[in-house]
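Input (structure):
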């Protein structure tokens, strides 16, 4: 079984989009399962740093905030930057 790191894949998709288009994507599209995982990570990070819970619809990246959109037809292993 191949190892899948969702966090790495999300940021790699964003980086590829920036390289191809010269600007960050407006949004990334993910499955409901991947969205929940990303939202949980954001809540945990906020709690660890003692800050208010961030909006799980936005993902903070080195290229600025990118909106997260759920697509129920996507596989948990796919990320689409657009």
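Output (sequence):
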């Amino acid at each position: 079984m191949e190892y899948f790191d969702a966090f790495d894949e999300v940021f790699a998709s964003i980086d590829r989009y920036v390289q191809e288009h010269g600007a960050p994507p407006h949004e990334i599209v993910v499955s409901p399962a991947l969205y929940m995982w990303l939202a949980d990570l954001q809540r945990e990070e906020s709690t660890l740093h003692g800050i208010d819970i961030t909006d799980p619809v936005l993902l903070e990246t080195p290229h600025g905030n990118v909106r997260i959109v759920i697509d129920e037809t996507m596989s948990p292993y796919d990320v689409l930057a657009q």
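Notes: The two ends are 29 Å apart (CA to CA). The beta strands are 27-30, 58-61, 64-70, 80-81.
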